[in-house]
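Internal tracking record. Fields below are filled automatically when a chain is submitted to the structure queue. Please do not edit lines marked as system-generated. If the sequence contains nonstandard residues, flag them in the REMARKS field before resubmitting.
Queue: standard
Priority: normal
Entity type: single polypeptide chain
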Amino acid sequence: MPSIVTNGISTQYERHGQGPAVVLVSGLGGTGAYWAPQIEALAEHYTVITYDQRGAGRSDHPAMPYSIEMLADDLQALIGALDLERPLLIGHSTGGAIGQVLAAREPELLAGLLLYASWGKSDAHFNWCFRMRRALLEGTSLDEYVHGSALFLYPPEHVRSHAATLSPALLASAANFPARETVLRRIDAIMAHDASAQLPHIRTPTLVLCAEDDILTPPYQSRLLAEAIPGAQLRVVPRGGHSFSETQTDTFNRIALAFLAEAGARHFEARI
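SYSTEM-GENERATED OUTPUT FOLLOWS
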């Protein structure tokens, strides 16, 4: 996994495939590994970039306050350092918040924006969920934290039918967990996110996507995003939970590829 210095930190990233660039930006966990179910399908048509965010995975974990704006600065620096021309961006949850900030302030940077299971402004429901996750992180073992967090990410049916493989994967993630203080800084950044004033300035072709049974960022959050972003499309699928790209991989990949092709075609037409 190569690394590159971006915005004053060492950032670990991966590049797969060939074609127009697509950057995949993950959620609170912050690692590029989240997108493993998407790599093969997208890399058939695109240059796919994944990376570990500040405070996650193998990138640097500086001891300082974090913000969504800072994470957007990091991503903009990565796009520049890798010389990506008008990449498409798929952002999950926190990654979608990063995409919102970046698209609003840099209208010519991105060719398309897919906001998946994201939110534009923290509210009581969102903050209560993360208050509970903070309490788990501060007051229990990491094994209990990752299992408790999974209940926010996956639908009950998925947990029931995949427990035999899901639990070992969660325990493995706990074994490679960042320092608790680092994750708490990332949670603070998430809870402070409010892009209400920025969303109307987004001109990037945008698809807002979520699952009906997402309890962490419920469908009303996606509807609010789509209403606030000029020209945004909204797609709500019946099931899949907050980690819809993992639980309903084929459906997610089909939707993502269709949007990427549409946004890429619009970008090409605008250039000629």
